[in-house]
Amino acid sequence: MTFGRSLGRWAAPAAFVASALPPFAIATATFPAARDPGRPNVVVILTDDQGYADVGCFGAKGFDTPTLDRLASEGMRFTNFYVAQAVCSASRTALLTGCYPNRVGILGALGPKAVIGLAESEQTLAELLKDRGYACGAFGKWHLGHRAPFLPTRQGFDEFLGLPYSNDMWPVGFDGQPLPPDHWKAKAYPPLPLLDGEREVDRIETLEDQSTLTRRYTERAVAFVDAHADGPFLLYLAHSMPHVPLGCDPAFRGRSEQGLYGDVIMEIDWSVGEVLAALDRHDLANDTIVIFTSDNGPWLNFGNHAGSAVPLREGKGSMWEGGCRVPCIVRWPGHVPAGTDCASIAATIDVLPTVVEATGAQPPALPIDGVSLMPILRGDPSAAPRQEYWYYYDRQLQAVRHGRWKLHLPHEYRSYVGVEPGRDGWPGPYATGRTAYELYDLEADPGERRNVADLHPETVEALKERAEAARNELGDQGRPGAGCREPGRAADETPTPTH
């Protein structure tokens, strides 16, 4: 682990792009008489398809992220931070349960016809904190089951405003026009509902509607902080953007050199600033853990409507580093040393046990896969609570990592190499990649360009043994794992929210 990084050249200017939109509320600072230091507030901000290099302090080009850069200068930047799978529902499952998604049976990206969701026996981060006396709010994209039994308000959250699944799961073409009824997408996807709690309050029907989402989510998130300033609270702000179709408020259009994608990221940066400003209004910054990350890497076949994972290989939909290694920043003044880097392996499955330790909540009753990162966050330079990571995609184990070494197992994968990406909201094709046993030294070669399996046969064999241990626990294609649990399942006729 590396400490002591200076973020001076990335520090936010005194007046930044937050001024592009007015604040949602003007409030005088409030100072509660006493706060419980053992129950810090928790803010988790999750973006969708934002690549590793799509934050200024991670190397973004063509747009600025002054708020996120300031957040990193005041906290810790994780450079080896992983999602569990490079796809929506599986990734979010890991964040909220502390489990590899294969353990709890939520894989891929659940669509409007899905009848599964998190089982009632699984305990989300919200449920654990609610038992500790926290108010819990979720705003943005859910995607862990849209049937009534699986909605956020049944999973520990007191409030929810957002979409039940991805913003591209709608009967609208890439040009923003409604599709004819006989089009496959119109048959697969009903109108896209915006839910408030368990009630549909609006529909997202046009690209202009998409452009309101970041602002709507931010407005509710800020209102939630204002309403629960006496704490403690959990705020889960899960942006739909920059998942295509892209949309941002008119105040941000044309602001970046990169185009619409950069504009969208700049609005997200503004959104983070609004949340931080709300914390400051109530003198909550020192009493709040803020975690910012993405659900997977960039959807590269969308070309100029996609982000970047440079210098990493591939993107969303693969378990090469560009698909599953994402930006992560953690701030907790007085606890997390400011302006530091962490190069130790860490992951979204570690968020839940870390927050459980920080808040004094009870851990889940069922086994999980995450480890607490608190030794790292407290600034212990020798801390490395996670040495190993398993790279699953759907039901297939595709790679394992131990320390600096990552072994890819034989598999086919989605690739973006050698094909022309789309432009302006239209996708290009995928390629199909194939790999045998390939070994990479991720400390020397994070871009996975030099296969060194022939130079380190003993490491290959050791990692093959670790892969077999993973299969025994969580399975592999056509092979069940001893530690796997079933997802929740609703009957086909279980109602979904309506007006």
Q: Number of DSSP helices? A: 12
The oligomeric state of the chains shown is single chain
Q: Characterize the overall form.
A: globular
Decide which structural class fits the backbone: alpha/beta
Taking the alpha carbons of the first and last residues, their distance comes to 51 Å
Low-confidence stretches: 1-33
| CATH class descriptor of the largest domain | Alpha Beta
Percentage of residues in helical conformation: 10-25%
As a percent range, the share of strand residues is: 15-25%
Q: Over the alpha carbons, how many angstroms does the gyration radius reach?
A: 21 Å
List the strand order in the largest sheet: 8-7-6-5-9-1-10-11-2-12
Q: Architecture of the largest domain, CATH level 2?
A: 3-Layer(aba) Sandwich
Q: How confident overall, as mean pLDDT?
A: 92
Strand elements, count: 20
Largest sheet: 10 strands, mixed
Number of domains as seen in the coordinates: 2
CATH superfamily of the largest domain: Alkaline Phosphatase, subunit A
